[in-house]
Batch of 2 targets.
Target 1
Amino acid sequence: MGIILKTWQIKIKSTPNTLKILSVVGARPNFMKIAPFIRAIENYNRHQASGIRLQVEHVLVHTGQHYDVRMSEAFFTELNIPDPDINLEIGSGSHAEQLGNTMIAFEKVLIEHKPDWVVVVGDVNATLACSVTAKRMNIKVCHIEAGLRSGDMSMPEEINRLVTDRISDLLLTPDTISSANLRREGTPDHKIAFVGNIMIDTLEANRERAYALKLGDIINNNLSQGYNFRGITPVDNSYAVMTLHRPSNVDEEQVFVPIIEFLLNEVTKDFTLIWPIHPRAKKQLMAFGLWERVLENKSMVLLEPVGYHEMQRLNMGAKIMLTDSGGLQEECCVLGTPCLTMRWNTERPVTLRENGGASVLVGNNIERIREEYRRTISLERKPSRPELWDGKTAERCLQAILER
Ligand code: UD1
């Protein structure tokens, strides 16, 4: 083994062909996207080690936008993501503070590390801040999950996506609708590669482990602080799952209160409702005086943010999903869980029922939610798989970078 290693090291030293990729994560939805990409690099390097042409050196930067153990560290452990090489520890703040602080700190990282490529994923503030900083330093940027468009400029994520895509050198799209969006905006063909959905790589790699979890354990291990579960653990197909975190749903009292009333007065009469609560939503429940009311409802199971496998397991057994998360819309599509997307638009139209997916847009108008909720609870689970959502997207992402 020692001899092999020595030969390998000499080969690396003697070749100028080392490509340095620096990837960025910042918030929870980024972690499941970067995990398979890092694995693809490791596999590639292992494979190449025997007859080395080009080695990939990888540096992982965490901006620190999400910092709670349950919102960040837990995913690194669960998904076997190596510890970040650098954590910028940006934390919470206004969008301008998060963006500005990330750019200032990330510029120093780029000066020190001088990567050939910066890889950003998704649409969070880290995606925008780091892509702009890299471009200003003439470093090539690759955007994984490019081309998604909701058309809703009130969403910070839409602005993050638009700016990042406009300046990226390589745009890796999850579906052909996204590729068409980019072409329509004038992105030249040679910058676009349709690679599929990298989140589904993580879903496929973790399906069995998730399925083996027990619902009772998930509930008992994650009860929300101050909440005392007195109900009976539900069985598969007898419960609903909800996640809500968008400012458009939880920040305004006149929107959030009617949603909670609907859950308390209607959904929990039909099902046990399992709700892993995002910190923003919990803060708002308390601010609007709703926290005590949800605590009292015996059919509502209030959880802290749950882990990756736990969320997949909850999804696998749910009769219905209510969510404003983009990632969950996609996972519902592949797992087949009938889903109400609590938004007026989506950047992921491929997940909608009219396009073969499992979800329907219901916004936050209660009449509309009620109508679709009634229709949806009679639906059966119906998995579907858009083109190239095959668990091999990360390899294609790396290949696309190497080809350039
Ligand atoms: C961010 C992303 C959003 C993504 C979501 C997933 C942007 C613009 N938004 O929104 O696209 O869907 O992550 O969660 O990047 N907080 C904690 N602990 C944490 C992190 C946050 O308590 O570890 C609290 C803070 O009080 C903060 C609030 O949650 O004010 C919201 O966090 P923030 O990072 O601002 O945005 P998200 O709503 O999480």
Target 2
Amino acid sequence: MALAILSSGGDAPGMNPAIKKFVDYAYKKNQKTYFIYDGLEGLIDNTIKEATHSDVAGIVHEGGTIIRSSRSKRFFEYEYRQQAYQNLQSHGITGLVVLGGDGTFRAMERFSSEFDVNFVGIPSTIDNDIYGTEYCLGVDTALNVIRDALDKIRDTASSFSRAFLVEVMGRDCGYLAIVSAMISGAEVCVIPEKEFEGELLSKRLRDEIKNGRRYVLAIIAEGTKSTSKIHQWLQEDVGLETRVSILGHIQRGGSPTVYDRLMAFDFTIVAVDHLLKKDNANKIVVYQKGEFKLLEIQEVVSNKYLLPQHYLNAINLLD
Ligand code: F6P
């Protein structure tokens, strides 16, 4: 019996601690381990190599993923999935841990409905947008990177009478934006899940500016695709000279926080333990109310992650 691990889609801090735990824990359980390099592309191209302890020495503090990642278009074609299956068979791989996000899990669902594969997915994406789990690997580190950037931007904002508009990642999900707005004390937050009430807000901000407010910090989720519209709104309706910062890929990098490392270890242990049971795997490990659970892959990919209501409510309370 041999177990393998791959990372796919956007890399997330916490993938390396998960990879280290995978090798160390599987070894304790007397399992041979393999790395599948370059995500689903590597599964197709057979870049599969046996993993050793020295491969995972000294990686726990590193962001990214030592086994690299990809966004594979080829995997959505049957002939490549067939090739991928043959590669798993040829190495005698009986269980697979998949670190990835929504797109990866969709691909794995297709794969597992056609071939006799046995995998467990670990939600790993800074977007925190996977159905059924309150937490995905990498989110805490990404939020800390954003917090650091916002604290610095606020230093400059408070030295000028200006508005600062900061665009954060998150694909179609506003999680990173709303949490960053809450913890940085931003006055404005625009996310895809909630209609932007520009008129009401500009009136309130103009009143506050009359009463002494000097600057405004606004956070916008990339998924709204309205950064230039909000820029214009801040300048024209609110009436403040505005600078825009798009944080971009720095949000995906950096040494995983303590929380991301601990979560990586726990997610991985649950995943490996499940693969070693005889029952059919093809599940996703999720974290709900302080506990780890396993959900069917079909349930995870056929439902949409919804922001908790108290976060949506918080948008109206920003000040
Ligand atoms: O899913 C993670 C993420 O960083 C999203 O927040 C972002 O929209 C996307 O990946 C960017 O993808 P890429 O690195 O392929 O440009």
